[in-house]
From TrEMBL:
It holds the Pfam family SLH. It comes from the Bacteria. This is S-layer homology domain-containing protein. Residues 54-117 form the SLH domain. It comes from Paenibacillus anaericanus.
Length: 431
């Protein structure tokens, strides 16, 4: 085919650009569609194609870059752009105002032009749509030009999907549970760490997926860490098949809300003892990558107590934890705040005592034979040198009892004994 050049544009290209558009407009007129709308649609499509092509050619976002797909998609949608010289700058930190602008634009929220700072119109829309509140941080130039943290990004992301909470330490839990935010590896949340342009577009694409009714893969280690940061335990993330109950027990809430975080601080009635359970951490022994295994000595050195004889604090029978890997470990991270009466309360750096109730052995004599059929104490060298219990996933019964987790004073005598129920649920076998 013969070609001619006009101002550096080939005849084929010129024909496509000019006559292709004219054809579209003429076709629209025949169909009764407004030519202006058809032209705008054509131009938008051409613009999107150009943006996509530009995004694919970013010199700092090569093939294989972990966020390339999301970056190309985001640029083609028009809520983020590159920099001169074919750069995207994926690792550049992003400011609060920039992220809010991107979210507002990606959600297609109408924005009115203002004469103020570049971010003001987007901030107003964000406030009107409950994406931002002045209780988050002050509405001023300094704050909006501050790099956004992962915690702040999680809060906006959750709000953008329509969820909310009144607990500031719950945003990251909601974000990770929905798959909006993933961890930095091994359960690390990095809530105070800043985020990048690449991370931002990835999170916004996840927001749009959820808004469209989609579901996202979840980083279970991040969810577990976020649950601990929220209310002091991860049992609902790690062992959800154990601590279950009827939905009528938490109408208008979630089962996680049944955990009584406010009762994790225990002060005896006589005022002589005070301690706190800072966290109850579940560890899945069947998962060799469980990030909380780092809290323990090597598993090969741990034993569980089968209620046999004890000599100078050391059980006479040794039962390795490593032989019961189809189990959970519960690690009780606590501390004593004060003890003004050692005659009544046993002093311990481990803090208040914790008891698991409702998981019963079919035959206690079987446990003494080395069959783990109910929760048992875990120790390293001597009994009570670790704040850990082992819970078999199967083999125990409830016998009509509900499952309870109780925190109580380390009492030596009955006087002054105080306890709190942190959780009470039906459990999987309650009749």
């Amino acid at each position: 085919m013969n070609k001619f050049m006009v101002g550096g544009i080939s005849g084929v290209m010129l024909f496509t650009v000019l006559f292709g558009t004219v054809y579209s407009v003429q076709a629209a007129e025949k169909k009764g569609t407004s030519p202006s709308i058809a032209l705008e649609t054509q131009q938008a499509a051409e613009s999107s194609v150009q943006k996509t092509q530009d995004a694919r050619n970013f010199t700092d976002v090569r093939d294989g870059h972990w966020a390339k797909t999301d970056i190309v998609t985001a640029v083609s949608k028009g809520y983020v752009a590159g920099y001169p010289g074919g750069l995207f700058k994926p690792d550049q930190p992003i400011k609060r105002g920039e992220f809010v602008k991107m979210v507002v634009t990606a959600l297609g929220l109408p924005v009115e032009t203002t004469t103020g700072a570049w971010y003001e119109s987007y901030v107003k829309v964000a406030g009107d749509n409950i994406l931002y509140s002045t209780s988050d941080f002050a509405n001023n130039d300094k704050e909006w030009n501050t790099n956004i943290t992962r915690q702040e990004m999680a809060r906006i992301a959750v709000r953008a999907t329509g969820a909310t909470t009144t607990e500031d330490d719950k945003w990251m839990y909601l974000a990770t549970k929905a798959g909006l935010i993933t961890g930095l590896g091994k359960g690390e949340l990095g809530i105070d760490k800043t985020t990048t342009r690449a991370q931002s577009v990835t999170i916004i694409e996840r927001i749009l997926t959820v808004k469209d009714g989609g579901t996202l893969p979840v980083d279970k280690y991040a969810v577990g860490s976020a649950e601990i940061a929220w209310h002091g335990t991860n049992i609902f993330t790690v062992m959800p098949e154990i601590y279950v109950t009827d939905e009528k027990d938490y109408v208008g809430k979630t089962i996680e809300d049944l955990w009584n975080e406010e009762l994790m601080v225990l002060e005896t009635k006589d005022g002589d003892y005070k301690g706190v359970l800072e966290a109850l951490i579940a560890i899945d022994l069947a998962d060799p990558n469980d990030p909380n295994l780092k809290l323990l000595p090597p598993l090969s050195e741990l034993k569980w107590f089968n209620r046999s004889g004890v000599n100078d604090g050391v059980p006479m029978e040794q039962h390795p934890v490593s032989e019961k890997m189809d189990s959970y470990l519960l690690y009780y991270k606590g501390k004593e705040i004060y003890n003004n009466n050692s005659a009544r309360y046993r002093s311990s750096d481990l803090g208040p005592s914790v008891t698991l109730m409702g998981m019963n052995a079919v035959k206690l004599t079987d446990m003494r034979k080395g069959i783990l059929n109910m929760p048992a104490i875990v120790y390293h060298h001597k009994l009570h040198d670790l704040p850990v219990d082992i819970v078999p996933k199967t083999g125990w019964v409830q016998n009509g009892d509900k499952l309870k987790i109780e925190i109580h004073s380390p009492s030596v005598v009955a006087a002054g004994y105080t306890s709190h129920i942190l959780l009470e649920v039906n459990g999987p076998m309650f009749d």
